[in-house]
Amino acid sequence: MSSLLYDAQGPRAKRRNLLYSALFLAVAALVLWWVIGSLAEKDQLDWEKWQPFTDGRTWTTYIWPGLENTLLAAALAMVIALPLGAILGIARLSDHKLVRGVAGTIVEFFRAIPVLILMLFANAVYAGFSGISSDNRPLYAVVTGLVLYNASVLAEIVRAGILSLPKGQSEAAMAIGLRKGQTMRSVLLPQSVTAMLPAIVSQLVVIVKDTALGGALLTFPELMSTISTMSGFNGNIFASFIVVALIFIAINYALTTFAGRLEARLRRGKKSTGAVVGADAAAALSTPGESAGPDGSGGG
Amino acid sequence: MFDFLEGYDLLGAFWVTVQLTVLSALGSLIWGTVLAGMRVGPIPLMRGFGSAYVNFVRNIPLTIIIVFTSLGLNQTMGVTLGAEEFDSINFRLAVLGLVAYTSAFVCEALRSGINTVPVGQAEAARALGLRFTQVLTLIILPQAFRAVVAPLANVLIALTKNTTVAAAIGVAEAAFLMKGMIENEANTLLIGAVFAFGFVCLTLPTGLLLGWVSKKVAVKR
């Protein structure tokens, strides 16, 4: 589509585009020159600020332990939130009004609240009403916050996945005499799992990113907070933040690309029903107030 | 029952949240539209810049961006964005970080909206002799915007929730107040309920209202 917004370029248009490219490059170069200049002025480009990252100890003391905690929290949150989300999502499709209502209220409520608020609240509750030691408390609080929020997002993904299946699937299951539970277990869920995979993978990106909240506000020793500690020690905040950002980009870009490939593959696939809850849909489903459409996409 | 609220400026904190949301929403709408224009435009260099920006920024945690504006830009580089007091410097830095982050999502929403406009619209515009900028601003974007009210509403709601991250650099918004109150008061459950209620009040009506608007303005095809 994008290439259809403009014609194939003739000689004049080519010259004009070349001029615009040159202008853009000039502006970009100016900005870059200014940034590098002011960085150099504050001694941020000195080798000693970057040198710690060539030292193995930096990685073993700060970066790996932090990364481990980040991935641990993300993995725990995902593993707990998935079954919880599946239950809530299926409950929202229940035939009983009460079950539907309760599940719907839970899902809408937790989608409407910022993860940070949930984490702060969980931390306070664990501090006041449980015997969890203060060393473990940040991890518990971070995982609880992530689970509450992401379980409700995953519930919407599950619901959208099941709704995206052709109606004939459940009708056929009913026709051969399967019960509601059997229909769900052996016909609808297996098919919708493939349809939901891209959205689930891209939800992982959100979880990985949100672990950084625990580092900033709950003293959870994840990647960002261990590197902040180190940068305070070495006085190389700029270099450290660039390195930590690059690590996050590498992980999340890999996940995003994987989700995209998976989606493209499922859409092409002939074996499935062809119904897909896309990676973009995850973002749409993470906000309250709108119910999931049949194909789960907010656009159009 | 609610006397623990005395001495805390609850409304003030939520007002800061609203201000952060509105200012960042305006900023990211503008910058996100520019980015989307670059990404669908004819100049390869700008297309490359647009997609690199989006792919980099949306994969960095917002927390890192916001903390970086304070530690990196302000404390290391001395950037103050024209403000003098501590409070307003951090407020503006938070808006800067939120705009930088949210525009990536606005850009993607808008690009998906551009894809919903039928090819014939652009073809007809080009047949009339309009140039790329004219095709985009007169024909495509007005239709694309009406198609993406719902996705943009999602971005706006996510932004409302994301403003809580500004607590990481000491902006006195709702999450910051909640953190302070939890430390000083015993009513953990009630405090949690009050702030949860506040955010439900902010986000649910926005979602419902904009969902209605999106049905209202959608181009019927």
Automatic annotation (TrEMBL), chain A:
Coiled-coil region: none
Residue ranges crossing the lipid bilayer per the database entry: 18-36, 71-91, 112-133, 139-165, 186-208, 237-260
Family as reported in the entry's similarity comment: Belongs to the binding-protein-dependent transport system permease family.
InterPro entries per record: AA_ABC_transptr_permease_3TM, ArtM/GltK/GlnP/TcyL/YhdX-like, MetI-like, MetI-like_sf
ABC transmembrane type-1 domain location: 67-259
Keyword field: Cell membrane, Membrane, Transmembrane, Transmembrane helix, Transport
Superkingdom of the organism of origin: Bacteria
Full protein name: Amino acid ABC transporter permease
Membrane topology: Multi-pass membrane protein
From TrEMBL, chain B:
Cell location: Cell membrane
Keywords: Amino-acid transport, Cell membrane, Membrane, Transmembrane, Transmembrane helix, Transport
GO molecular function terms noted in the UniProt entry: transmembrane transporter activity
One Pfam family named in its UniProt record: BPD_transp_1
Gene Ontology biological process: amino acid transport
Domain ABC transmembrane type-1: 14-210
Highest taxon of the lineage: Bacteria
SUPFAM superfamilies associated with the record: MetI-like
Family: Belongs to the binding-protein-dependent transport system permease family. HisMQ subfamily.
Gene Ontology, cellular component aspect: ATP-binding cassette (ABC) transporter complex
Keyword Flavoprotein included in the entry's annotation: no
Organism expressing this protein natively: Streptomyces agglomeratus
Record field: transmembrane: 12-35, 56-77, 89-107, 128-149, 155-177, 189-213
Protein name from the UniProt record: Glutamate ABC transporter permease
Topological relation to the membrane, as annotated: Multi-pass membrane protein
Entry-linked InterPro entries: AA_ABC_transptr_permease_3TM (IPR010065), ArtM/GltK/GlnP/TcyL/YhdX-like (IPR043429), MetI-like (IPR000515), MetI-like_sf (IPR035906)
